[in-house]
Every structure is written in structure tokens, then in C-alpha cells.
Write a structure and sequence with these properties.
single chain; 217 residues; mainly alpha; two-stranded antiparallel ribbon; 9 helices; 2 strands
Length: 217
């Protein structure tokens, strides 16, 4: 029994934001050249989703201030926007990690090679909600601007890594594994910061790069 309890405990993610991916060694040499075109429908939808997410986050701020709770429907919507953004970024120039086209859904798709989730908080701090999204998160935002260019799809160090990965794919057909693991770690950091700035958790993002496909436990 004690061993089972220990295993159950170690299976709990170290952070409420979970970002994972599946390495695919068979990514196409050339498809990345046209993914900007193939993903256009997703980009158009994401513009609308980002607008909706900004509005729902504002509503959530007042809800947390008065009730200490993030309305569940709004929370699920904003997690869905993060999830959708991560899939598109993984498919396109955030990572180029898969050739499988992203689904048009806010919900989880467990068999898609890029997955994201956020644990729903039963209660959130009234005091933190007033300062964490513009003051406490500032050092993290500066880091994210360097890591992913302030975007969860492309830019910064992650965008540079993706460019070199694209060149490697074109000439060798291989996505360097170390480059891939590092890239995923950058996006994992960015996702934690996005959830904190979006008022979805009171857990401050660690200044730590957790690389690889799976979350640390």
C-alpha cells in the first residue's frame, strides 16, 4: 500500500500547467515550406480566440476579486485557447514537431502529439489577482520575450531553433533530438507564464527550463 501511495504521489506533475509532446523522427523534409499556408485557417481562428480570451480574462479578474473563484466555463475556454495555440505552434514554426494537421477544437485530443492542460484551481487569491498579471509576472515576461519572442507559436530562441531544425530536416531528414527537447522546454516555460499572467493559477512559474517531451514529476 505504501509503495502504491508513493507511486501515485510521484505521478502528480510538478506544476499545474502541463505541456507535453511526442517526438516524431519521421517529420517531412519539405512540408514545413508550406505550413504557413496550410495553417492560415488556424491563424484566422486564433485571432478571434485571442480577442475572446482577453475579454473572458477580464471578466475572470472581477469574479476572482469578489468570489476567489475562476468561473469554470471561462477557465475551460481559456485553457482551450492555450491548447489550440500550442497545437498550431507545434505543427508550424514554433517547433515543426509534427506533420499531423491540428484539429479545430478547444477540447483535449489525447492522441494528438502536442497536448496542454491546466489544473482547475478551486480558489485563487484576491490580493494576487490585482498584481500578478502586470507586476509580479514582469520578470517572467521578459524571459518569455527572449525564449519564444513573446509568442507561443514562433519567435525568440525557440524560433531560431526551429529554423535550424528546418534546415536540418531539409538536408538530412533528421530533427536533432537535443534541439527538439530544448525547444519543448522553452514552450513549456512560456505556457506556465501565460497561465499565471492569465490568472489561471497562483503558482509562480519557476525560473527553470524543463526540457523534453514529458513534464517532470
Amino acid at each position: 500500500m505504501a509503495e502504491n501511495e508513493f507511486l501515485a504521489t510521484t505521478a502528480i506533475p510538478a506544476h499545474p500547467v502541463t505541456l507535453e509532446a511526442d517526438y516524431d523522427p519521421a517529420v517531412s523534409r519539405w512540408l514545413w515550406l508550406v505550413k504557413w499556408l496550410l495553417a492560415l485557417p488556424h491563424y484566422l481562428v486564433l485571432v478571434l480566440l485571442f480577442i475572446g480570451s482577453s475579454l473572458t480574462t477580464l471578466v475572470a479578474l472581477f469574479a476572482i476579486l469578489f468570489t476567489t473563484r475562476y468561473p469554470r466555463l471561462l477557465f475551460d475556454f481559456n485553457v482551450g485557447v492555450m491548447r489550440w495555440t500550442w497545437r498550431v505552434g507545434y505543427y508550424t514554426y514554433g517547433t515543426l514537431g509534427t506533420d499531423r494537421y491540428p484539429p479545430f477544437t478547444l477540447g483535449p485530443v489525447p492522441d494528438y502529439p502536442a497536448r496542454l492542460d491546466v489544473v482547475y484551481p478551486e480558489h485563487l487569491s484576491r490580493g494576487l489577482v490585482l498584481v500578478k498579471w502586470w507586476l509580479l509576472v514582469l520578470p517572467q515576461l521578459l524571459m518569455v520575450s527572449l525564449l519564444v519572442g513573446g509568442s507561443s507559436t514562433a519567435g525568440g530562441v525557440a524560433g531560431l531553433l526551429t529554423f535550424f531544425a528546418a534546415v536540418s530536416l531539409l538536408f538530412t531528414g533528421v530533427y536533432p533530438r537535443g534541439m527538439y527537447d530544448f525547444n519543448i522546454g522553452l514552450h513549456r516555460w512560456a505556457a506556465r507564464v501565460a497561465a499565471y499572467a492569465g490568472l489561471m493559477t497562483d503558482t509562480y512559474p519557476p525560473f527553470r527550463l524543463d526540457q523534453g517531451e514529458r513534464e517532470p514529476h
